[in-house]
Structure formats: C-alpha cells, structure tokens
Amino acid sequence: MSHHIVEVQHLQHVYPDGTIAINDVSFRITHGESVAIIGANGAGKSTLLQHLNGCLEATSGQIRIGDTRLSKGTLPDIRRTVGMVFQYPDDQLFMPTVFEDVAFGPLNLGLSGSDVEQRVADALERVGAGHLRAKPPYHLSGGEKKRVAIATVLAMSPDILVMDEPTSGLDPFARRQLMVLLREFQHTKIFTSHDLDMVLELCPRTIILRDGAVVADGPTAALFRDDALLASCRLEKPFAMQECPVCTGKTVQKKP
After folding, report:
1. N-terminal to C-terminal alpha carbon distance within the chain
2. Domain housing 125
C-alpha cells in the first residue's frame, strides 16, 4: 500500500513576480487517511494541491507518492495514482459530450470497448449524473459540471483522490451525495474546502495554511476548538460547533 502515501518535503513555490505561494511546506499522509487542507483565500491551498500530481512544478523541495519521487519522468505513473479534481470544472471538461469526457481517462489507460463503457457508467452513476452522458458539457449547470468533473477522475480508479473545493457550486442534495461518495472512497483523500462542516464530518485530520506555510497539523476537532488559531488564520468554527444564540439566550444586536 506504499503507493497510497503522499510525502511533501520542504516544498516551495515562487511565482515569476517573486510572490512566495508555498513556503517550506512538509507533511506526510498515509494510506486511507482523509485530510483537509484549509486556510483563508490566498493561503496557498490550490497552489499546493496542484503540485501533488505535477500540474505545477516546485521551485524547490520534493514530493513522493509512495516510493516514487515526482518528476517529469514519473508524471504518467503519478497521474494514474493521484486523481485531481480542480476547483473550476471548465478546466477539466473539454470533449463534445459528457460520455467522451469521462471516457478520456480510461481510454488513455489503454482500456477499450465494454471496459470503458462500464467505467463511464459506474463513475456517472456514483455522482448521480448518468442522465447527462449524451449532453455537451457547456449545456450543463455549474453543479452538473462539478459532478461530471468528479466522474472523470473516478473513472480512472485512482488510489489517491485530491479535490479542490469539491462542494462549491453544489446544491444541498448534491453536496450530501458527494459527502456519501467521499465517505465510501476507501483510499487516501486530500481536499481543500471552505465548507468546514464537511471537513469536520469527513476529515479526522486537518492541515491549516497561512501565507503559504503550515501553521497547524492535527486532529480536526481539536484545531477547530482553538479560537485564537482560527482567528489568526481568518477562519471561523464550523456551524456545528458554534453556539446557537437562541439556545444560549444570547441576543444578536441589530445594526441601527
């Protein structure tokens, strides 16, 4: 199971204008862990995720997936192991129909015929999008595009699932469907999210970024009880951990 392990060592990413997006980040995620990477806008979450399957090249440091160091030469193997769902589905959908988009990955794995058909059908069914298979992606709503983008990755049967803001753009029903799917995915899961209630429910471990650096890494519930830490990172507790003003007898002051 070593190929399910993600190890990031002293990772740094500096943009051409000199902005340090990722600053000396290190962590190790083992097989089967469900880990959230959170932080305020601009903390470096999306940039970090895009390094995990080589979408961005590090300025320094290294990433290992199992026993394999990520490099230009190992990218094909890494991308078969690490499935990446981007924040914006339009970055991921480019074929004339949903079926062709979801089939693209399995075809590049060398599958054909009934095997591809089965992979596509299973992936679309898992995200509740089987009825969309013949539609052009540009005719879909934002939530439908997000579900199809997730299906394109699931069709590859990745060992490690990496998702950037997976619930953004989803209605409450689709959000709940996605959470059930993530709970059923037995391998390693890593995702960023501003949906801290989902993080609390699905991720026993959370890594918090601030200004591109790791400021906390530990049990999710414990980190979410640290008011000073959350405030310093411009985060708030999940709704599930916030006191109800009605139940506690506290009144909300209205602005004049």
Report:
1. 60
2. 2-248
- Residue 97 domain flag: yes
Residue 235 CA to residue 216 CA, distance in Å, equals 13
pLDDT tens digit sequence for 39-68 = 999 999 999 999 998 999 999 999 999 889
Number of domains in the chain: 1
**Residue 13 pLDDT level (bands cut at 50, 70, 90):** very high
Predicted local distance difference test score (pLDDT) of residue 3: 61
Distance CA 84, CA 164 (A): 8
CA atoms within 13 A on the CB side of 171: 6
CATH of the domain at 44: 3.40.50.300
Distance, in Å, from the CA atom of 28 to the CA atom of 41, rounded to the nearest integer, reads 23
Contacts of 86 (CB under 8 A, 6+ apart): 92, 149, 164
Q: Is the pLDDT of residue 177 over 90?
A: no
